[in-house]
Design brief:
- Helices cover about 35% and strands about 15% of the residues.
- The protein is of the alpha+beta class.
- It has three domains: about 100 residues, no CATH class; about 120 residues, no CATH class; about 180 residues, Phosphatidylinositol 3-kinase Catalytic Subunit, Chain A, Domain 5, CATH 1.10.1070.
């Protein structure tokens, strides 16, 4: 929390439905965050800030939440802020940009607020934050003509050097790709656009309106010094999820200025480049319960919330709980111990009967390949490893999976079928890991060993 006691004010807009409109006003005091919907927005029957803070529940009543160490803002708005970590690419990019505007030495929430004013719009999801209405209207109604530029050696900056956190060329980077909005996480990512036909080496700024022939993407870069081979690993994980029948966005492994990169099509935009309501489970659950971080929960409790929450999280609870169960099992089978609440999101597709559901799979990277992330599961499930019911031994993996399935309303027969399907569908996974070219042998060996341990127990 900031030591600056000056009240802060902003406006929240959205392009939901294709038309820019103001959603309401935001005020942040030294003690609380307050938001009030505009009268006209309440009458539109559109999604609001998030599921818990929907207009249908609050109407014209001001939403108020005390500021805390983890949340200076309402959770859907806090998600627009890059984490306060020294090595966060998005945060460093924004702070360097602010420094060019003579806003230097910012820290804490004062830095968050200035970052929000320049990059709190056009990001993942449907919420756009602006300093005032004049800036919002200018941003929406005067978008630059969309152009695609070749990523070539003629670019006058060394992105490779920049990615190792030597950011001397940040101003030139900004001039090249613009002060583009970004998404959270320590892995360098930028929001860009490419031809709708797929990656061909040309990039442009994210769209702000219907732009025929153009699709928006998240472009992820590899930090070879920290996560060597991570682009190959994530690409393989996406392949495995698609092979297992999950909905997966289009993606293209590519090379950007000599760096391995992955362009992933954004699922939070429709065919007309308009935003869809999208919110992470972390934002949804933290809006109703005091959570300390994005893994401060249990998979069992997610299933319970899907069934019992006063807020309708999904349109089809049974299908969604089965989806969650399968996501966890395949995460275990691919060595992704990092399936936390930020990597599970809900969106509203508008154009189908089961409108509100889990989004397509994203960030399924097998992080167990890296020793600093070698964890079976970042969140507990089925009392795994615990002493329960006066048992003398802790709950083992298979029993924990049975418990989680039971709490998800999945029958024993169905559970066995789902596990066997995922075992069969991933049986060549270790062989494919072994064939990866850019992942060091040490990391491949670790991942293959961890996966083999899980497969042996589940088989």
């Amino acid at each position: 929390m900031s030591a600056n006691n000056t009240d802060k004010e902003a406006v929240i807009w959205t392009r939901l439905g294709g038309t820019p409109r103001r959603m309401g006003r935001l005020y942040v005091t030294d003690k609380e965050c307050r938001f009030t919907y505009d009268d006209h927005y309440v009458e539109l029957n559109l999604p609001g800030l998030g599921l818990v803070y929907a207009p249908e529940y609050y109407g014209k009543t001001t939403i108020s939440r005390p500021r805390s160490e983890k949340f200076d803002l309402l959770p859907p708005l806090q998600s627009l802020v890059p984490p306060q970590q020294q090595d966060n690419f998005q945060r460093n990019l924004a702070l360097k940009y602010l420094a060019t505007k003579d806003k230097k030495g910012l820290s804490g929430f004062d830095a968050d607020w200035e970052i929000l004013k320049i990059s709190g719009h056009g990001g993942i999801g449907h919420i756009d934050l602006f300093e005032n209405d004049e800036i919002a209207e200018g941003w929406y109604h005067n978008p630059p003509a969309h152009t695609l530029s070749e990523v070539s050696d003629e670019l006058s900056f060394s992105l490779k050097e920049f990615m190792t956190w030597f950011e001397d060329d940040i101003e030139i980077l900004i001039q090249t790709v613009g002060p583009t909005p970004s998404v959270g996480g320590a892995i360098p990512k930028l929001l860009l656009s490419i031809p709708a036909s797929g990656w061909d080496g040309r990039i442009g700024l994210p769209t702000r309106q219907k732009t025929p022939g153009i699709t928006d993407v998240v472009l992820k870069f590899e930090q070879k010094n920290r996560y060597p081979g991570i682009i190959e690993l994530e690409t393989l994980a996406l392949d495995m999820h698609r092979q297992a029948g999950f909905e997966v966005p289009r993606y293209w492994a590519c090379n950007f200025k000599g760096m391995p990169a992955l362009a992933v099509e954004r699922f939070d935009r429709d065919q007309n480049n308009n935003p869809l309501y999208t919110e992470s489970l972390y934002s949804i659950l933290a809006s109703g319960a005091p959570l300390n971080n994005n893994f401060d929960y249990q998979y069992d409790l997610i299933a319970e919330a899907i069934d019992k929450s006063a807020v309708k999280i999904v349109s089809d609870p049974e299908m969604s709980k089965e989806h969650l169960f399968k996501r966890l099992i395949l995460a275990l089978l691919t060595g992704n111990g990092d399936l936390h609440l930020e990597n599970l999101s809900i969106y509203d597709k508008h154009d189908v009967d089961t409108r509100r559901s889990f989004t397509p799979v994203y960030d399924p990277t097998p992080m167990r390949a890296y020793s600093q992330h070698d964890l079976l599961s970042v969140m507990p499930f089925g009392n795994y490893g615990e002493l329960v019911d006066k048992q003398e031994a802790p709950v083992k993996l298979v029993e924990a999976i049975k418990r989680f399935a039971n709490r998800s309303g999945i029958s024993d027969n169905c559970r066995q079928e789902l596990v066997q399907e995922l075992l069969a569908g991933s049986q060549d996974y270790s062989e494919r890991v072994a064939e990866l070219k850019t992942v060091p042998d040490e990391n491949k060996t670790r991942l293959i060993k961890r996966v083999a341990e899980v497969r042996k127990k589940l088989a």
